[in-house]
Every structure is written in structure tokens, then in C-alpha cells.
Write a structure and sequence with these properties.
The complex is a heterotrimer of chains A (about 475), B (about 375) and C (about 190).
Chain A: E1 3-6, E2 9-12, H1 19-25, E3 49-52, E4 59-60, E5 70-73, H2 77-90, H3 108-117, E6 135-136, E7 141-143, H4 153-160, E8 167-170, E9 177-180, H5 192-197, E10 203-205, E11 218-223, E12 232-238, E13 241-247, H6 259-262, E14 277-279, E15 282-284, H7 286-302, E16 307-310, H8 317-330, E17 336-338, H9 360-370, E18 373-374, E19 383-387, H10 388-393, E20 401-405, E21 414-417, E22 426-429, E23 435-438, H11 451-461, H12 468-472, H13 474-477
Parallel strand pairs in A: 1-5, 16-17, 16-19, 17-18, 19-20, 20-21
Antiparallel strand pairs in A: 1-2, 3-4, 3-5, 6-7, 7-10, 8-9, 11-12, 12-13, 14-15, 22-23
Helix pairs in contact in A: 2-3, 7-11, 8-11
Chain B: H1 2-8, H2 10-23, H3 25-63, H4 84-94, H5 105-122, E1 131-133, E2 138-140, H6 149-157, H7 160-170, H8 174-205, H9 210-216, E3 220-221, E4 225-226, H10 229-232, H11 234-247, H12 271-296, E5 309-312, E6 315-318, H13 321-347, H14 355-384
Antiparallel strand pairs in B: 1-2, 3-4, 5-6
Helix pairs in contact in B: 3-12, 3-13, 4-12, 5-6, 5-7, 5-12, 7-8, 8-11, 8-14, 11-12, 11-14, 12-13
Chain C: H1 14-17, H2 20-39, E1 67-68, H3 83-87, E2 93-99, E3 106-114, H4 123-127, E4 133-134, E5 157-158, H5 160-163, H6 177-189
The chains are: A alpha/beta (about 475), B mainly alpha (about 375), C alpha+beta (about 190).
Amino acid sequence: MPKVIIDGKEFIAKENETVLNVAERNGIYIPRYCYHPALSIAGNCRMCLVEIEKMPKLQIACATTVTDGMVIHTQTEKVKKARQDVLEFLLLNHPLDCPICDQVGECYLQDYYMEYGLKKSRIDLKDKNRKPKRRDIGKHLILDNERCILCTRCVRFCEEVTKTSELFINSRGDHSFIDIKTEEKLDNDYSLNIADICPVGAFTSKDFRFKERVYRLSSTSSICLSCATGCKIKVQHNNGKIYRILPDPNIYTNTWICDNGRMSYKITAGPDRLTKSIIKSEEHHLNKAIIKLFDILKEAKEKNLKIAILLSDYLSIEDNFALYYLGFEILKTDLIYASKEKEQKIEDGILINKDKTPNSNAVSQISKLYGIKKYEDLKDCDLLIGFYDDIEKLNIPKNKSVALSYKADKEYDNLIAIKTYFETEGSFINWQYFLRKTAPSVSAPTDTISVYDLCLKISELFGYYPKEKELNKIFNELKYKTED
Amino acid sequence: MEEFIKILSPEYINLTLSNILLNHKNDIYLIIETVLKIAAFYGGIMSLAGLLTIGERKISALMQDRIGPNRANIFKFTLWGLFHPMADGIKMIMKEDFIPKNASKILFTIAPVISMVPVLVVFAFIPFGNYLDLGFYKINFIILDSDLSFFLLIAISSLAIYGTFLGGFSSGNNWGILGAIRAQAQMISYEVVVVLSVLPVIMIYSASSLSDLTLKQSGTILGIIPNWGIFVQPVSFLIFFTAALAENKRTPFDVVEGESEIIGYFIEHGSMRFAAFMFAEYVEIILFSMLASIFFFGGWQVPYLNDQGFNLGSFFIPINHYLIVLMQLASFALKTVFFSVLVIMIRWTLPRFRFDQIMRLCWANLLPISVLNLLLTALIIRGIK
Amino acid sequence: MIRTKKIESKPLNFFEKIYIIEVIRGFSVTLKHFFINLFFPSKIPTISYPEEKVLLPGNAKLKSRHRIKLRSDGTPKCVACMMCSTICPADCIHIEAAETETPVEKYPKVFNIDISKCVMCGLCVEACPEDAISMDTNEIAGGAYSRFSNFQKDGLFLTKNELFIKLKDEKISKLGAANRLENEYGERND
């Protein structure tokens, strides 16, 4: 175990650890561009120079491994001067695009300039290198070569993470620029991570382009529901509108997230978002819709019609159990169905799961615990309550069903507008058996309701007042892990 | 029937009228005189009160390096803002007359009236000049002279408290009620001090009517100083001035209204109702100024001037009677305006007292001093006699 | 850390306690102002707007209604960087950005200023990196002498139509993106 001294304080480091890692672990920040914890070390930006005693020159902290008794200084005048000079080189040909650049607020150049630079450019405007700007480089990305500082994080990402190697450095010297291989587009499933890891505004997201300033966004930790992997994400929003989704890197599940998951926020706002419930082809406000639905259910119950209830892999544990409770305890029906167990594995070796539903792990456990039938057994029924996506897959007459939906669909007679999991809480068990909760980041449209609340209200109308304990007992019976 | 026609005939009426004129000549002169005096005196007071509203704004502006209101105009003719009282009046009349739901309607309606009436009635006892001898008739410049006018004045003016108290209590607003409670406490306390502070003057001049009091302030002390209350009883004047300010609820004793932050008894009164309260305040300022000048500055007296002319010790300058009357009227008017302006200026100079400070000032300082003053005066008068 | 400053008030002496002398001292101050202003009214610093207008020195005059300057080709200088709406303490500026074909890339699709919320602090002008927003129209928004609808609430809600204007005899300055547009990119397009 080597002992090192950084800025006068003694730390114990691990074997073969780099100076930057030791410093970072102990709360000493060393500026960097090319270093990224999840990528290989390139050491080409020279921003992380530190002074190490008994070494004649400054060393880069990201690629120097510690040895016993090493004495490192990160804040001396010499180091600061070196960083200033490195920054001046990096900014030499950088355009003054900040007012129109989307990176503002999370731009390493801006941050370090405020810390180390604060100098005027010594080069004339006309002598600056010109490089291609505003290049449409793929489905999700726009590349601005003038802003690039050639840290090669993007090149390494495509080589090491996606293993598609679309990007390379073209030309030489100060004319070199990031380019894409001929006849190719940067269309891999993880391309938007490049916009995240780019320390400057060279790669920006088309989806987020010019929508909002980064420093105005607030962040809410949640989980991605586009597949069974259940990546942790940060939902970034402002004034009740979600603008983008970023990965929330963690050691358990994910460092990145896929482009598909990033676009999943679009269900919250869009032309086809269902904002008002439709009962018997008529739009109703929330309270009236609940009463109308109650009337339908009551009538069906009195006539002894067959009411079927579908549990859904897309809904949270609470919602599923509330649905089950509604069917079993209140409607007294035994026509409750759930999907069969699905095969869960990472398809592409990175993150995307074969199982595209977020909660099949929990639902299959519930169906085993309570002996719930499979979808295939559903032969005929008079009334069906279930999640929109599930009903779509089954061959059920659409006028017989009450679909809980985010999406407006004119083919259905009965649609209940429910809250998305960006707007309400829900627990999910991912393929690794981790129990994680979504967190509401924005407020839902006024006439929507969560499935849990809907079931609760209908039970109340039927005269049952289920206690919270009764509905939450399911968590004692499920098998899951937590992260701590 | 015939007799009735006879009565209605023009000749008969002429005859009756001339008979009445002959028999009741003096009564009719008195009626005409009183009506004219009321019109002139009250007209003067009302217009002065109106001018004080604009005066207050202009004076405060000048004291604070501002211009003050100057935009109200008739055909672009602004007259230094003199149209503002008119504009204010029109605005007050045009505003919605609003009575809150919880308010007691009758009391709410009459409260502003009650606050105005006693103050206006009191002016009847005020001598605003000596007399005018027209040869065939002598006019006294006082609307209603009475031997006990001082005590009547005290009695009637203390009724004004009902206006403020009803205004607060009838509005059905807790803040209004709190304001009214503060007003009651303050006004009743200072009422005592006002009376006690004036009594020594009454004792020295041994006159219980205001006209008598003014008359007795003629002449000089030691031939130089005018024989005015201020020179005889300076302490009395200071106490009277302070206490009267407090009774008028003027700054620095205006926690009752606290126009800028606390809320007063007339919080729920709007439009003309509020105007009545505010107008009453300005009329009270005028009353206070007149009383101050009568008690301590000789009322209509001009220094060294008697019925015939100026008497400066050995000199004597005879002056026309009409000129003397004019000078006396002008003297009274000037003193009144001076004190009114002084009161306004005090408002824009001094900060407000806390309520506990106000009460302590009254009961712990002014009251003992005035009682002592009263006792000393009584002793001295007794000793001299 | 909370810092406290202890202020020691000294007790009043006898002359201060009897008030009268202090009252006279107070009077001497207010009366001085009163008489100076009464006899020399021209010394009162008030300016009777709009009859009198005073051009104040420096940036102080730039506190009238906002506008967005235009480039020589008529497009707004604004690039929708949102600096002004970020710094605005009254939160009265609303901008929606969009993409344009010109090399500047970004322009404001929606630019609204709610003058009824505005506190006329001028921070937006200070913050603007493109020298686009300015308060030099010499108009009071919504006021009697404004160019647009008077005394109406609508007159206080400025949209693109009211904001993107050119003043009379205005020289187009080549600061910010306008400069880049005409110098740098002009060269490269050749």
C-alpha cells in the first residue's frame, strides 16, 4: 500500500492507482479534459499537470501511477501557470460561440477559463483556424469541429464502449479534427452519451438543441423504464417540462444509457398525450370519469358479467397490486391475468435488455404468489381493465375494454388518462432483482390519475376503505435486493 | 271666507309686514346679522380647511425638496395646484359608497357625521373680531356669546370622540376596533390635560367666556409686553399645545391612524365617509389654532392697539374705526393660519411616538406638571389678592 | 457564520428628555429646506416629466423601454442565449429559441417582455453578450408618450413587433455575432 502526500496531506493509495484517482477519492479536484473514469487513459489534453517532487518536469496526473512516498503538489504557482498555458493553447482556435452553444453551464472550457484563464486572446480573429461547423453527423448528434479540443473522449467511447469505431481524427497538427468514416453515420444505440462526455460543445444533442439553458435545469433521480435493465437516470426539467434525461452512473447497473431510454420522456408531453379520460367515447373531467367508470363496473358486477383484469409489466408494483386488489377483493372476479415469465438478458453486451418491460420480474413473482393466470388463458370476457400496451397485444374487442393509457387512441371507447412515472412514484424490480423507485419530476396534467389512486378511489366508491398497510404488504412477500 | 280673502290681499300683507318690521326690528337685524356671520365665518373655516389639505401636501413637498401636486388643471391652468382640493372632492363624491357586510349600517353611516358636527358647533363660541359699529347698529364678531362659553366649548368638543369610536366599532373590522380603542384611550387622556392646562389662564383673567377672555388680554404688562396668555402662562401654553396635538391625533401622536403602516379606526370608511373624517381632522386643526390664539395670543388683539388707535406709551396714533376692525380680523386670521401651518410642519418634522410613550407622556409628565402649574397659579393669585 | 454588531445607545440627557430643544433642532433642519425651496423653487431637484426631459450622463439614460437592435440585413442581433432572461430579477423576459439557416445558427422565435413585471434595473442590457437588447428608446412603456397602445395592459406586454425596431439615425454597430457574421464567415464563404 503506497503512501503519498498530496498538497501536504498524507493518503494511502491502492496499488497501481493513478495520482488523479487518489486525489479525486480524497476530495482534491484536478482539472481534466481527456480523462474519463469509464474510458481508457489517453493523456493528450495536458490539463491535469501536477508537480511531483524529484521529477524534473510536471507530470500528468491521469496517467502517472503512484509510488510509495510520492510528494505531489496540485496548487503551486508552477502548476497554475502550466494550466493557464495549456488552456490558452486549447482556446487558441476556439470560436466565441458561447451565446449559441448548448454546452454553456456544463462546459469545462468555461469553468476552467473562469478559474485559470481570464486572459484576452493573443491571436487575431482572422488567423484562427476554420473547421467545419454544424455537421449533421447522425440521428441524434450535431458536430461542431471548431469547438472541439481533440480530447478524443468520443473516439475512445466508440472504440471501447460501443465497439463500432465510427469516429477518428482526420488531418494533422492544429488542422486535425474529429471526422466520421466515409459513408457512415453515427447511429449506434448509445450515440447521445457522446454529447454527455464531450467536455466542450463540439457534440450536441439534436433533441435538446436550443431548447433550454443547462444551468436552468433542475435534476431528479429516477429510473429508466424502457427495458428490464432499469438504468438509473437523472431527469432534467424546468418549469414543469422535461428537457432531457442523463445517466446517473452507478456501480450496480449502468454508466451510460441508451438513446431509446433518453427519448422516453416524450410520453409526458406531446400531441398524443391523453390528458382527459374518455368514457363511452366522451371526454370527462377526472372526478366525473371515475364515477362513470364506477357506474360501468357496478352495473357489470350486478349483472354478473365477466370482468377481467390484466396486470401489466409496464406498471409499478404498487399499481399492479392495487389492480389485483380491485379485482380480487372488490369486483370478486377470478379473471385476473398476468404475462408469463420473460427471458431477461443483456442483448448487445452493454445495457439494452431482451425484455423490453421494466417490471416483469415483480409481476411474475406476484402471479406466482397469488396464482394468477397467464394472458394466453384469457378466452372471453365482457369487460377488461388493463394497461393500453398490453391490450394492444391481445385480441380483445376494443369496445369491451377499459384501457389505462398515456396515449390518446380513438379506437377505444374507454380510456383512463393515467400519470406517467415521470409524474408519480412507482417501485420496480429490474433484471438484477434491484428494487428501485421512480421519483416524480414534473407535475401531471390535472385530469390524470395514478393507477394506485384510481383503484383506491373506486374501492372507496364500492364502500371499501383499504388501508395503506394492506396494499403495501406485497413488499414483504417479494424477493428483491437493495443497493445498500 | 271674506276675512281670509282680506288677509291674502296685497295691501293687507304689506300692512302686516310693516307692522312686524316696526315691532321686531331688532330681532330681524339679529337674524340677518347671525346668518351673515355664519355664512362668512363658516365659509372662511371651510375654505381654510380645504386649503389646508393642499397646503399640507405642498408644505410637506417643500420640506422634502419636492414640488408637490401641480397637475390638476382647468383648461391647462393649474394655479400652483389649487384645483387639487376640488379634484379630491369630486373624486371622493364619485367613488363607490361601500358598507362592509359586518358593519352596523346606521352607526357606520352616522359616525362621520358625528365626528364633524361637534367640532363645527364649537366655532359658534369663537370671537373672531371685536365689534363693528355701523352707527345705527353694532355687530359683535361672535356668533353666539355666552358667559359660560369656555365650559360649553369643552363639553361639546369632547363629544367628537364618539365619531372616532363609532367609526371603529361600527365597521365590523378588528383593526378598526383596535384603532378605535387606541383613539379612545388617547383622546380621553389628553382631554383632561387640555382642560387643566387652560384653567390657569381662565383663572388669571377671571373670565369664563371666550370673548371676555380676549377682551381682557388687551393692554400691556409693564408697558412693553402685550398682555397675552403666552407671557403670563408660558408653561401652560406648551402643555396645551402638546395635549391639543395629541387630542387631534396629529403626528407625532398619530398611532391612532398611522396612515403609513398601522391601520386606524376609519379603515373601512371610503369615499365621502372617509373625506368627512379627514375634513373633520383639518377643521379640528383650525379650531385648535383659534383656541391657541384666543387663550395665549390675545385672539383678535393687535399689540398696542385699542379702540381708538395705537397706544405706544407716550405716543398715540388715532386710526379709523373700520381700519381697526379690519386689522383685528386680519390679526385673528393670521394667528389661526400661523398655528395651522405650524401643526402641519410639526407633522413633517417629528417622528411618531410609540403608544406607551404617548400614554406615559400624558399621565406621568403633562398631567402632574399642569396640576402643579394650576396650584401655583392659584396660590399666586390668592397671595396677590 | 452570523456576525453581530453591538450598538450601544447612550442614555438621553436632561435637555434631550424635555424634547423642546430637540424639537427646535429638528425644526431648524426642515424649515431650512422649506424656506430655501419656497424662495428658490428652481433648486428643487424634481424633473417634471414629460414636459421636461433631462438627458442623464452615461448609462443612466438607458433606462427607457427595451428594444432589440437589428443587424444591417434586418434580422435581430439577438441569438437567444437567454442571458437576459436568466439574470432578470423580475423574471419578465420569455424567450424561445429556434434554428436558422444563417451561420449564426440561433435566433429568438419568441421574445416577450412583460413590462408590468419589469423593474427597469437594466441588468439585461449589462448581461447581453451580443449588444442586442438595449433600453435607449426614450419611451416609457405603456405610458402616455409610448409609441404603442397607451394606458392599456396590452401596451405593457412587448412582443417581437414592438421590440425589434430600429431607431432613427441609428448606426449599426458591429459587435457580437453580427461582427462574426460579416467578418469571419464572409471571408470563409468566398
